[in-house]
């Protein structure tokens, strides 16, 4: 299903986060000498986009979705993910993640995003009227106005290298 225009800003942020997940996955196992650089990139993404992104979902989308019985379990699972992922971002900010932690983070965040895109967003688009989606879009725009749209440029340590 084509993404409703009112959800596109969240989907764009999902793309940025998925790009980081793919890079972590392909670079794993990450050498200890590069851990600080990866964690700095995670922290920057969280501060510039993800913190506000989580707030937008929690303030706008999750309450809407809770109004539908078949989405309430999914919403509870996504909220737990937000708690766990926030903790991992916090640990990254203070340099407390191991190479294994980074891999676990990338897998969890990737799974979380795919659930939102393939289950939550798809169902909301099917269940909400055009007017309800437009109202949700306005509310999302208001919460997301403080997010910066940044594309992190990988450093030597975090860029993908061609394999021989």
SSE arrangement, N to C:
HHHHH
Beta strand count: 0
CATH fold title = Four Helix Bundle (Hemerythrin (Met), subunit A)
Shape: elongated
- Give the helix tally: 5
Radius of gyration: 16 Å
The end-to-end distance, rounded to whole angstroms, is: 38 Å
Share in β-strands: under 5%
> What structural class do helix, strand and pairing data support?
mainly alpha
Level-1 CATH class name: Mainly Alpha
Q: What is the CATH architecture term?
A: Up-down Bundle
How many domains in all?
Answer: 1
Largest sheet: none
The CATH homologous superfamily: nmb1532 protein domain like
Q: Helical content, roughly?
A: over 70%
Could you list the spans in which at least 5 consecutive residues all have pLDDT below 50?
Answer: none
Question: How confident overall, as mean pLDDT?
Answer: 92
Task: Present the secondary structure layout.
Layout: H1 8-27, H2 35-66, H3 69-93, H4 99-127, H5 130-144
What would you say this structure looks like, in words?
The protein has 164 residues and is mainly alpha-helical. It has a single domain (8-144), classed as nmb1532 protein domain like (Four Helix Bundle (Hemerythrin (Met), subunit A), Up-down Bundle). Helices cover 74% and strands 0% of the residues. The protein has five helices and no strands. The longest helix is centred in the first third of the chain and has 32 residues, at 35-66. The model has no long low-confidence stretch (mean pLDDT 92).
């Amino acid at each position: 299903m084509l993404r409703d225009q009112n959800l596109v800003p969240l989907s764009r942020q999902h793309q940025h986060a998925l790009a980081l997940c793919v890079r972590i996955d392909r670079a794993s196992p990450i050498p200890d000498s590069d851990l600080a650089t990866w964690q700095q990139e995670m922290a920057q993404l969280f501060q510039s986009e993800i913190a506000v992104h989580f707030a937008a979902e929690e303030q706008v989308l999750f309450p809407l979705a809770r109004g539908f019985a078949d989405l309430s379990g999914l919403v509870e699972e996504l909220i737990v993910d937000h708690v766990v992922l926030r903790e991992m971002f916090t640990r990254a900010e203070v340099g407390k993640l191991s190479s294994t932690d980074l891999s676990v983070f990338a897998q969890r965040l990737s799974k979380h995003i795919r659930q939102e895109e393939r289950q939550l967003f798809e169902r909301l688009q099917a269940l909400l009227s055009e007017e309800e989606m437009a109202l949700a879009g306005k509310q999302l725009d208001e919460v997301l106005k403080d997010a910066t749209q940044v594309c992190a440029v990988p450093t030597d340590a975090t860029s993908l290298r061609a394999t021989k």
